[in-house]
Fold this sequence. Notes:
heterodimer; A: about 350 residues; B: about 325 residues; alpha/beta; six-stranded parallel beta sheet; two-stranded antiparallel ribbon; 13 helices; oxidoreductase (chain A); magnesium ion binding (chain A)
Amino acid sequence: xxxxxxxxxxxxxxxxxxxxxxxxxxxxxxxxxxxxxxxxxxxxxxxxxxxxxxxxxxxxxxxxxxxxxxxxxxxxxxxxxxxxxxxxxxxxxxxxxxxxxxxxxxxxxxxxxxxxxxxxxxxxxxxxxxxxxxxxxxxxxxxxxxxxxxxxxxxxxxxxxxxxxxxxxxxxxxxxxxxxxxxxxxxxxxxxxxxxxxxxxxxxxxxxxxxxxxxxxxxxxxxxxxxxxxxxxxxxxxxxxxxxxxxxxxxxxxxxxxxxxxxxxxxxxxxxxxxxxxxxxxxxxxxxxxxxxxxxxxxxxxxxxxxxxxxxxxxxxxxxxxxxxxxxxxxxxxxxxxxxx
Amino acid sequence: xxxxxxxxxxxxxxxxxxxxxxxxxxxxxxxxxxxxxxxxxxxxxxxxxxxxxxxxxxxxxxxxxxxxxxxxxxxxxxxxxxxxxxxxxxxxxxxxxxxxxxxxxxxxxxxxxxxxxxxxxxxxxxxxxxxxxxxxxxxxxxxxxxxxxxxxxxxxxxxxxxxxxxxxxxxxxxxxxxxxxxxxxxxxxxxxxxxxxxxxxxxxxxxxxxxxxxxxxxxxxxxxxxxxxxxxxxxxxxxxxxxxxxxxxxxxxxxxxxxxxxxxxxxxxxxxxxxxxxxxxxxxxxxxxxxxxxxxxxxxxxxxxxxxxxxxxxxxxxxxxxxxxxxxxxxxxxxx
Lengths: 341, 336
Ligand SMILES: Cc1ncc(C[n+]2csc(CCOP(=O)(O)OP(=O)(O)O)c2C)c(N)n1
């Protein structure tokens, strides 16, 4: 049997049509499952119900209960099942529904999945994919709305991807499953119904490569996940005033492609990092530090960060709206950077 | 093996729940039923943000247990927590305001449906993380034991929650420390859309208590009096320092896991829902109260009417209440 990890990670030029983010994820997953018998899915209500976010719709019909497994509410055992099965050569896709639930199975993710290859002297790999939905915006409150990528990206041995649209949702999911390491795929709840062009055939997007979503010469905005769309909208708004914003989507936050970002900063000399997660201790700090290390002499202003305030995600829609960064705050941030001569 | 609560006790006096208890149980159940039904309507009308996990159908459990507790007894609840909060006495105004995200809400608009609490009434919160309230109740019971106080703690959870590690760790901890805590499993047969038979191989969740040396009892969760009597016995034990107890109430939720309806997947049959509704806890209690002369129809109707009025007033209050001020976004991140 050929292993999927050897398959080329290129996006072939084929007919594309618009698909929702969640459907694109679903299609990518189904295609890798067709490609590799070793891929199976386990999680709460993923099979019979098709997942509470419809991520797994129709997969039970096609792949049956051997490969689509409804599990008890036992996240530690669920991730552990994935780790053990992966160590024995399967390619588990384990779903954690809401990202917040990693709190109850963090040991299996951080101390087991992430470290096994290293601790075993490289004699075993853990091709485990963890899928989950992150982000605020649904009034789901403090225990169902977090963006915890910084927790995970801090751990050597884990990869973390954050698709910003349907196209990347499919391509990153395919690559995550084909990857021989544990990868966490952070889908964004607010994006689930959003549409973009998605090729019909299977394609992977290389992990660890940033994408320049828009070219511009005046400011670089580095945006994670859902913030890519907000940044592109902000860029359009500023373009009307003759300000050209470059938008970079890291796509993978671990490993992080800082080279692409630094190259951009050397051209624009101004940089804003924006993420939905809390600013304090967030990835914005890491990105800013790396840029200062590598491109200090090119900066016309200190690196600016935009993220959530230092608070749990509030329930009340008025508070939640004020909490999550948006187009307006990105526009403001760019203006502030440009005001500095 | 778990004991099944026998329908009839050897002592005939014990079989006759006092009229006062019956009226208390009835009132608590009516309050929950109407609170929930109206909340469901508000959600369907698009007036409430977020998620709403309704409790309708399970009223006998919250009412039966809470009527056996004192105000200073502590409870922890679940994502399906409105019924517990209402039965513990949390005000309708605070609850509806919270569902609306108003600053007058039980969590100042920060928590929403899944996090309603009222510490002054011993309501240590609903919880968005399945199983998370269980160890917290054990901690509350520990505090009582530590201080030599005789209040107890009660934790509510579903059948599904007993598959999570927190349940097992907390049960063992409570047993080994002889803590005054009651484990109330509301077995409604489903964890979200997964039937019990597909998430555990045992029929009686109460059997799980045995492996921790914890006594257990199984009760009809549609019979408020039965739930109440079982709880009273467990409370007496716990207050006397005889340790934790596990009560499994077999019950049912009428609405969908979340929201009112929206079943895109037929995970249970309409016939099954109707079968349970035919044994509705409020109908059963009313029928027996009328049959044995404990209450008149007029008295029961009066409870419904008064509660309806109170609810209408609470909803109006919530709708007229101010939204939280975004300038206070960091409120209570740290406090005290
Ligand atoms: C740790 C965790 N895992 C999963 C969920 C998602 N979830 C919310 S309710 C629920 C089912 C709970 O079933 P049960 O404990 O039987 O309670 P019921 O809903 O039947 O009242 C699940 C899986 C969660 N909130 N927390």
